[in-house]
Design a protein that fits this description.
4 strands; about 85% strand; mainly beta; four-stranded antiparallel β-sheet; elongated
Length: about 60
């Protein structure tokens, strides 16, 4: 099991939200081939609202 922190920001244009960016970090722990590991990972996801639907444009 791991833990995570996520922050989400929005970019608006003409009074409407058109872009959303989620950034975060998570820690993952586990065992592989009998050895314990701890991994830190970061991520950024960018989504765009097109035709009233959210689409991931970068991850």
């Amino acid at each position: 099991m791991g833990t995570s922190d996520i922050a989400i920001g929005y970019v608006s244009g003409a009074g409407k939200i058109r872009m959303a960016v989620a950034v975060g970090v998570y820690f993952e722990t586990g065992v592989t081939k009998g050895k314990a590991y701890l991994q830190l990972a970061r991520f950024t996801d960018t989504c765009s609202k097109q035709n009233d639907q959210w689409k991931c444009v970068a991850s």
